[in-house]
Structure formats: structure tokens, C-alpha cells
């Protein structure tokens, strides 16, 4: 156990625990954008930065990946944190002027004045890369970060509809700024330039997902693809069990 | 060299099927074909059992790799600091006037590509130009014209 | 009697045609010296560092050095200086007083240097392992094998050797930490991704003395218990890659590395990985991602790579120059090494002295040498004796140091106090015709392209700072721009993910700190005092100074200059593109930069 202070309050944590988790557990809310429990180690949006004083030396760290190794003092709202965060938020706002999430963060925490700059027209993406991470982990790796530096973006190879994409929308759901556009009318789903047919539950008729994502899920589970919604699948399992144990 | 399935397979199989060789294999393709052909990237993804997108991410990240064929002659203009303060941008403008191409572009006839590089480590000879791996030091606008003319007439010396 | 003809074949001399000189010597020797008493031997060597004056030819044992040798000089050299003992004065170096000097030691460029890392370069053929062995090569490795790993590390700690790549982390401490984990396999790697524009120390060492670096890396592997290692070398360095590969093959063939390291029970496999052309891969975690075959993005380094590096295993990564010093430290003891340099920065440092300095090239001097000594005594001062303005150290992570600070002693700590850094050793000298705002814009533009683009402050902060700097250079600067640059710059330093981003604002912040008046002239008076920023500059010819030599008109790409021979020339402002070629061409200081703001 390690004892640290956050904004003056004594808190305890395990060695190696991430500062963000310790702070939130103790009632200190730190904003985040690129942090997601399923996709670790992103550390790129930088809005969760805090000031840490260790052995008398002060430094700015990002709390989402900073492991607590020894006693220290943490400040989530010091002057230095406020100033750095204000600039980071301003940069994000000029990057993604269309994002309501960024706008709300700027209002809540205060952003520097960015009127000097030409904001990127119509942009919502903050280039955190969560979508590519989710696609690699949950989907099929159909999208990735492309290029580098200020030109960096998210896309499919050659900016063409990807044959790897299964239309699972993991990318769109995980995006903190809702920057990935898709259409879903219950019959078809459009994302990344492709249109997918939606399969409906053969029992109750509820939409289940795209044919490709059902196939992928079945392949991973080592089963035959089944066109059942989660509720009917459960029901089917229950029926089988009941039958097995001779209840009916 | 013409892109062929056979050559692609040969390049891929000259390495162990291990992710760590992905960059080296694509560099070999670049050397062989002057770019990383799409079929090469797809074959490599198949071999390494990885998504094409992860190789595409590398191919667009690393400057040594290119997705489109480069010109027959590659002019590398050094724009490292030493060359920069000794007039590299004047040379780049000069090439723009002579060949109508900017950095990263290829002439319409496919003869020349212009690349700017950050430092060739030949700062003592600044500004430096490399045409088809031949180094030219202390290049002036006048010398530039001669070099381009020379290449047009019979390849780099 | 034998005489050796050492011909410098580093990248610089090759660009100056040294391979033709080698050929000329070969054919000339075949023709003329079959029955002479003297047996000439040709040796091609690595970079002598004085590239501007290449090709360099050294005759040994006479210690006679010729510069700017052309193939047509070869028959005369062979006849007079090899087969006989005569000098050819016109090929010898002219010192400050105009005297022709014979040896390298008498040449003011070399006279003040102390060569440790560069000790063999120019003396040996880098492609011939025999040459290296003859000078005691691999004896340090042999010695290290007879010591315990702890003794080896203690020796490196005693030397005080700090990482030459820029950060200056103590090499011994890094090894000690890596050795302390019993998590195998472990790896060693050599960082040869020398990306700072204006720096070529590592290129020269890899090209000119590859075995020294291999020996250093092998000793590191023995010390921490690694059996595999990598040389990560910049893609642009063809010759370095070739020489290291050859050296590795030769060392393996001789049983120096491989299944048994010099007959011991230890194994070591070393291989070369070519960089992909990305500056950020000089950063340790990005470099490791690249070796693993991924995009070269850095990761947060709160857990250091000595603990979790390549494939999450303990990894020691050292710079080329750091490793080149290791064999010396093991051979002669750490204490002897620590006697050189300053207390906290021991040993020597190799600098690439370039830019607007008379004698440019590679120089190796003890740590703590002053900037003034480097630039004026070794470098001979500014070209054309123009006024010195600044020296840029440490590449895009470094800063610009003004004249008032020329007496600073260069080591790891002293420059850092002033917002600059020694960095890996690039040293670019600038005169009054270098615009400091444009220099800041240049580095920021460089970093915008070279940033990996992963974290917000670096990617977006650089984008916005470049926007402001471009505006200032093109005459659209506004009041408040300087303050905004400082504000964003400080946040980028604080909040970026890796050292590239954290140091990226240094060129901007130091130029603002020391040359604020130049920024103000651009913003308020729409004037570029150095006459570099095209939108703000116009050139005029001073009729009183112009002698009508026509040099300016010849070099003018726009055909904007006219005038009869021996009569004052004129620049047509409607054709002039403000490139400044005429000013560089004029030997009479007759071309003047005039601000455009003054026209209005």
C-alpha cells in the first residue's frame, strides 16, 4: 500500500495503480477523452493531465497511464494544470470545432482563446485513435491511423471500402466525440463506404446485426452462425437446459 | 522492375514469417519496384496473418516507403539545417521552375521525382543534391541546370 | 620500403569524387611502380571529418596530407610524394597565416581536437577487420569476458560516461538497472537513427569504425546478459549500413560474435535494422516499436525501456558514439576516461560544426570546451568575416545561442540552463544573414512533418505555432503573436507525450528569448532584418560598390539583373523573386536587402 495525497486529501492505493483510477475512486473527477478500460495505454488526448510532486520535484503527468510507485502529492487543479489544460482544450477545439463534447469540456474547464487560428472546418475527430484500437481488438483491423504528424488521420487502406470491415460499429460507439458517421435504418447499415445487410432474428424479428459481424462472432466462438437475437438465444439455451434436466 | 507476383513472393520468403520483418520486406519491395505495390502489401498481410490496414499504416508513416511509383530518376534535395541556411529552398524553387514539380511529386513523363530529405549528413558540402545516389555538393542554380541537363542526356554521371 | 596512401572515402569525400581518385591511384600504381623501391599500398578510410576540403589523401609514414585532390593530381603525387619524398605545396592546407602545412596535427582544424570516439577513423580501412585487430580491436571484449558483469558495469559507472544521443543519461546506471532484472530474454540495441538535421557524427563513426561500435554493443550485451542485439540505422545512410553489415559478417566468421563469443560459453547475435525514414524513431520507445515491425509511435515512458523495452523485455539502448567509447573504457579503465572533460560530463564529444563557418566538419573535443573556441579557433570564424549571430545546437530539440553566451562551456548541463541543449552534437553557425524567425519556422515545419501525430499538444500545438510563424515570416504577424507562441510553447513542453514534443518548442522559445527584436521587426515594421523572408525583402544594388563583374546577373534565376560589364548593375523589382542569390554571389557587398515596409 502506498499513501499519497490528492489535492491535500490522504488516499491509499496499490503500487503501480494508475493515478486516474485512484483519483476517481476518491471522488476527484478528472476529465478524459481517449481513455477506455478496454483499450489501454492510449495517453494521447492529454486532457487528464495533473501535477505530481515527488521528492520535492514537480512535474506534469497524464493520470490515465501514470503508475503510482511511491508516495507523492497530486494536484488536479493547480495553476499549472489549469494553464496547460486550457491550451490543450483550445487546441482540441480548433481541431474539432463541430464536437459538442469538446465544447462542453471547454466551457467546464476553461479553454485559452483560439480566435487567432483557422479552425478545421466541419471536423469532429480529435485523432485519439480509440476507433482503430477498438477495430483491431474487437473488429477486424479494417481501419488504422494513416500518415503522420499534422496530416495524420484515420482511414481504411487506400481510402477505399474495406473488405475486412464487418460493419460492427465498434469504432463509432467507442469514439468520444461521435466523429464516425454511419447510417442504420434497421434494414441496412452504412459505414466506411460500405453497405451491410442487417439480419433479423428468426424467432422474434428483432435486428441482430450485419451478416458479416454475426459470422465473425460465430467464428471466434467456434460455433455455427445463428440468426438469433440475444433474448431469443438465451431463451433457446434455457429450453435446451430445461429439456436436458427433464423439467419439461 | 516490373511488379510480378513471383518477385513479390521471393522478397517475402527471403525472410522468416515474423512481424518484425514487415518494414524490411516493404523496404525491399520499395527498392525493387520504386514503390510498395498494393498486391505486395496484400500478400505480406496474408503471410503475416495481419490486417492490411496495419501495413498500410506503416507504409504511410515511414517516408522511405511510397504508395505510388517514383520517377525514373530520383532527385533528393537536402533541406537539413546546414543546407537550408545555405540556400536549399532556392534550389527547390529552381527545380520547380526547371521540371515543374514540387517535393513529393513526379514529372508527368515519369522521368523525375523530387524528394526533400532532412539531412544527408554531408553538411560540409551544403547545399547538397543527390541524383540517383550520386552526390553533388555546393550546388548553385547554374550547377543545378547542368546536373538536370546531364541526367536528361544520359543518366547521372 | 612500404608507403601507405590513405584515401578518405566517407560520404562527404565520395561526393567530392574520392572514388575516382582511388581508381586513378590504382591504375597509376600498376603502370609506374612495378620495379620501384617503394611499395605503395592503397587504403580507403572512413570520414576524416574535414569533408569540405575533400577528397583527402594522406601519405604514411610521412604524415603528409593533401586536400581537394583530383584524379589529375594523382600521377604527380605518386611520382613526387610516394616514390620520392617531395611535397606538393599547392595541395597542402593553408593555415590562418597563409603557410602551407604538412600534417593533420599542424592543421588548425585538427590541432585542438582530442580523438577518442573517432580514434581510428581515417587510419583504418573500415571494411577490413584486420586493420581493427591490428590496433588492439576486440581486446576490450576479451577482457570483459574475463571480468564479471558487475565489474564491467562498475568500470562504465566509474567512467561517468553519459549517453551521447542527447539526453545524457549515465550509461553505467542504465546497464546496472537492466542487469538487475532476471527477466529473460534481454536485448541490446544501438541507436544509429541520427535524425537531427545538421548532424553526422554517428554516420561517420558507423562508416569509419564499425567494429568499435560492435565491440561496444557486445560488451553491453555481456554486462546485462543479452544474447540478441540490433543496430537501428537511418535509411539514408547507405554506406554505414553496408559497412556495419560487412563488419558483423567478418566478426561472426572469426568467432568474435555468434554461437560463442570469442570461445566463451556466451552467445550473441547482432543484426542491422534499417530505419524507415522517420525522425521520431530516434526516440527510444518509437525506435523499439519500429524494430518490432510497427508504426514508430512512442509510448508513455513512465515504465522505462530498460525494464520493458523490445517485446516488453529489458532492453539497453545506447547511442553510436556512446558505444564507440566503451572499448576504450574497458581497456584503459573508467578512471582514465573520467579525467577528460568536466566533473559531471566526462570524456569528449564529437560535434558537427556546420553552417556559415569557414572550416566545417566533424570535431572531437573534451567536454567543457567553449563555443567560442569551437567556432573561432577550430572553425576559423564566420565565412567572409561577417558578424556572428547565433549558433544552433541540439537540432530541432535544441535552441539558438546568441553571441553574448559564446564563452559558455559546452557540456550536458550548461546549455540546458539557457533553454538550449548540447543534444547529439549538431552545431549550426549562423551569421547576420540568417533570420531567426525563419529558423524557428524551419524547425517547426520540420517537426510538423516528423511528429508521429499521436498526442494533442505536439500535433496540434506545432500546427498552430507553425501557422503563427508562417504568418510572421510572410508579413501577416499580429500584436500578441509572440505571447501566444510562448503560451502554446510552454504547454507543449509540459503536456506532450514524448521527448520530441517536449523539446519541440525550444527553437521557438530560445529565438524569442534572445532575438525578440527580430520578431518585433517582422510583426510591427514588416521588415526582415536578415533579408531572408521573401515577402518582406527586396534587394538593391549599391551603385557605389558595384564594379559590374556580372556575377549577380549570372546567378539570377529570374533574369532580373541587367547592366553592362564594368558598369553598375540594376535589379528590376518587377522580376525579382527575392531569392537572395545575387547577395550570395556578390564579392563586393554591393547587394543590400531592403525592407518592403520602407517602400510604403
From TrEMBL, chain A:
The keyword Disulfide bond does not apply. Ferredoxins are iron-sulfur proteins that transfer electrons in a wide variety of metabolic reactions. PROSITE patterns: 2FE2S_FER_2, 4FE4S_FER_1, 4FE4S_FER_2. Keywords: 4Fe-4S, Iron, Iron-sulfur, Metal-binding. This is Ferredoxin. Its cofactor is [4Fe-4S] cluster. It comes from Mordavella massiliensis. GO terms for molecular function: 4 iron, 4 sulfur cluster binding; metal ion binding. PANTHER family: PHOTOSYSTEM I IRON-SULFUR CENTER, PHOTOSYSTEM I IRON-SULFUR CENTER-RELATED. It comes from the Bacteria.
UniProtKB/TrEMBL annotation, chain B:
The keyword Cell membrane does not apply. [2Fe-2S] cluster binds at residues 78, 83, 119, 123. It holds the Pfam family 2Fe-2S_thioredx. Its cofactor is [2Fe-2S] cluster. Its EC number is 1.6.5.11. It comes from Mordavella massiliensis. Belongs to the complex I 24 kDa subunit family. GO terms for molecular function: 2 iron, 2 sulfur cluster binding; metal ion binding; oxidoreductase activity. Gene3D superfamilies: Glutaredoxin, NADH-quinone oxidoreductase subunit E. Keywords: 2Fe-2S, Iron, Iron-sulfur, Metal-binding, Oxidoreductase. It comes from the Bacteria. Binds 1 [2Fe-2S] cluster. This is NADH-quinone oxidoreductase subunit NuoE.
TrEMBL record, chain C:
It comes from the Bacteria. Keywords: 4Fe-4S, Iron, Iron-sulfur, Metal-binding. Pfam families: 2Fe-2S_thioredx (PF01257), Complex1_51K (PF01512), Fer4_10 (PF13237), NADH_4Fe-4S (PF10589). GO terms for molecular function: 4 iron, 4 sulfur cluster binding; FMN binding; metal ion binding; NADH dehydrogenase (ubiquinone) activity. Residues 537-566, 567-596 form the 4Fe-4S ferredoxin-type domain. Belongs to the complex I 51 kDa subunit family. This is 4Fe-4S binding protein. It comes from Mordavella massiliensis.
Amino acid at each position: 500500500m502506498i499513501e499519497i495525497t490528492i489535492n491535500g486529501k490522504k488516499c491509499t492505493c496499490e503500487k503501480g495503480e494508475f493515478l486516474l483510477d485512484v483519483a476517481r475512486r476518491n471522488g476527484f473527477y478528472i476529465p478524459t477523452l481517449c481513455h477506455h478500460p478496454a483499450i489501454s495505454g492510449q495517453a494521447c488526448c492529454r486532457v487528464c493531465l495533473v501535477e505530481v510532486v515527488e521528492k520535492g520535484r514537480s512535474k506534469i503527468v497524464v493520470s490515465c497511464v501514470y503508475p503510482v510507485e511511491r508516495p507523492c502529492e497530486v494536484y488536479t487543479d493547480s495553476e499549472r494544470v489549469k494553464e496547460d489544460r486550457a491550451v490543450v482544450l483550445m487546441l482540441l477545439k480548433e481541431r474539432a470545432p463541430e464536437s459538442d463534447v469538446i465544447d462542453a469540456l471547454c466551457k467546464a474547464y476553461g479553454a485559452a482563446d483560439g480566435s487567432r487560428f483557422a479552425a478545421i472546418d466541419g471536423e469532429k475527430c480529435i485523432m485519439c485513435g480509440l476507433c482503430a484500437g477498438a477495430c483491431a481488438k474487437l473488429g477486424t483491423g479494417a481501419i488504422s491511423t494513416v500518415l503522420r504528424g499534422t496530416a495524420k488521420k484515420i482511414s481504411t487502406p487506400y481510402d477505399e471500402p474495406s473488405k475486412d470491415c464487418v460493419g460492427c460499429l465498434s469504432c463509432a460507439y467507442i469514439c468520444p466525440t461521435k466523429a464516425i458517421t454511419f447510417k442504420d435504418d434497421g434494414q441496412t447499415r452504412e459505414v466506411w463506404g460500405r453497405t451491410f445487410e442487417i439480419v433479423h432474428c428468426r424467432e422474434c424479428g428483432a435486428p441482430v446485426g450485419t451478416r458479416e459481424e454475426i459470422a465473425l462472432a460465430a467464428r471466434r466462438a467456434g460455433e455455427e452462425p445463428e440468426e438469433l437475437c440475444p433474448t431469443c438465444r438465451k431463451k433457446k439455451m434455457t429450453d435446451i437446459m430445461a429439456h436436458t434436466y427433464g423439467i419439461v | 522492375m516490373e511488379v510480378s507476383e513471383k518477385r513479390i513472393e521471393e522478397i517475402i520468403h527471403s525472410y522468416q514469417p515474423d512481424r518484425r520483418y514487415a518494414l524490411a520486406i516493404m523496404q525491399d519491395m520499395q527498392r525493387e519496384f520504386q514503390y510498395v505495390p498494393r498486391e505486395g502489401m496484400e500478400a505480406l498481410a496474408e503471410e503475416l496473418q495481419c490486417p492490411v490496414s496495419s501495413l498500410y499504416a506503416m507504409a504511410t508513416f515511414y517516408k522511405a516507403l511510397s504508395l505510388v511509383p517514383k520517377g525514373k530518376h530520383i532527385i533528393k534535395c537536402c533541406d537539413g539545417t546546414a543546407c537550408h541556411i545555405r540556400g536549399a529552398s532556392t534550389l527547390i524553387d529552381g527545380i520547380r521552375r526547371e521540371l515543374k514539380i514540387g517535393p513529393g511529386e513526379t514529372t508527368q513523363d515519369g522521368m523525375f521525382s523530387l524528394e526533400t530529405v532532412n539531412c544527408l549528413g554531408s553538411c560540409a558540402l551544403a547545399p547538397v543534391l543527390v541524383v540517383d545516389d550520386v552526390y553533388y555538393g555546393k550546388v548553385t542554380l547554374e550547377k543545378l541546370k547542368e546536373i538536370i541537363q546531364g541526367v536528361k542526356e544520359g543518366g547521372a554521371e | 620500403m612500404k608507403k601507405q596512401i590513405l584515401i578518405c572515402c566517407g560520404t562527404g569525400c565520395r561526393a567530392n569524387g574520392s572514388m575516382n581518385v582511388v581508381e586513378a591511384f590504382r591504375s597509376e600504381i600498376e603502370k609506374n611502380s612495378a620495379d620501384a623501391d617503394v611499395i605503395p599500398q592503397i587504403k580507403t578510410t572512413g570520414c576524416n571529418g574535414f569533408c569540405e576540403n575533400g577528397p583527402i589523401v594522406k601519405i604514411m609514414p610521412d604524415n603528409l596530407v593533401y586536400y581537394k585532390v583530383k584524379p589529375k593530381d594523382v600521377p604527380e603525387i605518386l611520382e613526387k610524394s610516394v616514390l620520392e619524398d617531395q611535397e606538393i605545396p599547392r595541395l597542402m592546407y593553408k593555415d590562418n597565416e597563409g603557410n602551407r602545412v604538412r600534417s593533420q596535427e599542424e592543421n588548425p582544424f585538427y590541432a585542438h581536437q582530442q580523438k577518442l570516439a573517432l580514434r581510428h577513423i581515417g587510419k583504418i580501412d573500415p571494411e577490413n577487420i584486420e586493420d581493427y585487430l591490428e590496433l588492439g580491436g576486440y581486446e576490450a571484449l576479451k577482457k570483459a569476458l574475463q571480468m564479471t558483469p558487475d565489474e564491467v558495469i562498475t568500470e562504465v559507472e566509474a567512467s561517468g560516461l553519459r549517453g551521447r544521443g542527447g539526453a545524457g543519461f549515465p550509461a553505467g546506471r542504465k546497464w546496472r538497472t537492466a542487469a538487475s532484472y532476471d527477466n529473460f530474454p534481454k536485448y541490446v540495441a544501438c541507436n544509429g537513427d541520427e535524425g537531427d538535421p545538421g548532424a553526422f557524427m554517428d554516420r561517420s563513426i558507423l562508416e569509419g569504425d564499425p567494429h568499435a561500435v560492435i565491440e561496444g554493443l557486445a560488451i553491453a550485451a555481456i554486462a546485462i546478459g543479452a544474447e540478441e542485439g540490433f543496430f537501428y540505422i537511418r535509411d539514408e545512410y547507405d554506406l554505414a549500413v553496408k559497412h556495419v553489415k560487412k563488419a558483423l559478417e567478418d566478426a561472426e566468421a572469426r568467432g568474435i560474435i555468434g554461437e560463442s563469443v570469442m570461445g566463451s560459453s556466451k552467445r550473441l547475435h547482432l543484426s542491422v535494422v534499417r530505419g524507415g525514414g522517420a525522425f521520431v524513431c530516434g526516440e527510444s520507445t518509437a525506435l523499439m516499436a519500429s524494430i518490432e515491425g510497427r508504426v514508430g509511435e512512442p509510448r508513455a515512458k513512465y515504465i522505462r525501456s530498460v525494464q520493458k523495452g523490445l517485446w516488453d523485455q529489458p532492453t539497453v539502448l545506447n547511442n553510436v558514439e556512446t558505444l564507440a567509447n566503451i572499448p576504450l573504457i574497458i581497456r584503459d579503465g573508467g578512471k582514465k576516461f573520467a579525467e577528460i572533460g568536466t566533473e559531471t560530463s566526462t570524456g569528449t564529444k564529437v560535434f558537427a560544426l556546420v553552417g556559415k563557418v569557414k572550416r566545417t566538419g566533424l570535431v572531437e573535443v573534451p567536454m567543457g570546451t567553449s563555443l567560442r573556441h569551437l567556432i573561432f579557433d577550430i572553425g576559423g570564424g564566420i565565412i567572409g568575416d561577417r558578424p556572428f549571430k547565433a549558433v544552433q545546437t541540439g537540432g530541432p530539440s535544441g535552441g539558438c545561442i546568441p553571441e553574448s553566451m559564446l564563452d559558455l562551456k559546452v557540456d550536458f548541463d550548461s546549455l540546458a540552463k539557457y533553454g538550449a541543449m548540447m543534444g547529439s552534437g549538431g552545431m549550426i553557425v549562423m551569421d547576420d544573414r540568417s533570420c531567426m524567425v525563419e529558423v524557428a519556422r524551419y524547425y517547426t515545419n520540420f517537426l510538423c512533418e516528423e511528429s508521429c501525430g499521436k498526442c494533442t499538444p505536439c500535433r496540434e500545438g506545432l500546427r498552430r505555432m507553425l501557422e503563427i510563424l508562417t504568418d510572421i515570416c510572410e508579413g501577416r504577424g499580429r500584436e500578441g503573436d509572440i505571447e501566444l507562441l510562448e503560451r502554446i510553447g510552454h504547454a507543449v513542453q509540459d503536456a506532450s507525450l514524448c521527448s520530441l514534443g517536449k523539446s519541440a518548442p525550444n527553437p521557438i522559445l530560445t529565438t524569442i528569448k534572445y532575438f525578440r527584436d527580430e520578431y518585433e521587426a517582422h510583426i510591427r515594421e514588416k521588415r526582415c532584418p536578415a533579408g531572408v523572408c521573401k515577402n518582406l525583402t527586396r534587394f538593391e544594388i549599391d551603385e557605389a560598390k558595384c564594379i559590374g563583374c556580372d556575377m549577380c546577373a549570372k546567378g539570377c534565376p529570374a533574369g532580373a539583373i541587367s547592366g553592362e560589364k564594368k558598369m553598375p548593375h540594376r535589379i528590376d523589382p518587377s522580376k525579382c523573386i527575392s531569392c537572395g542569390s545575387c547577395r550570395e554571389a556578390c564579392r563586393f557587398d554591393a547587394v543590400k536587402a531592403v525592407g518592403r515596409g520602407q517602400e510604403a
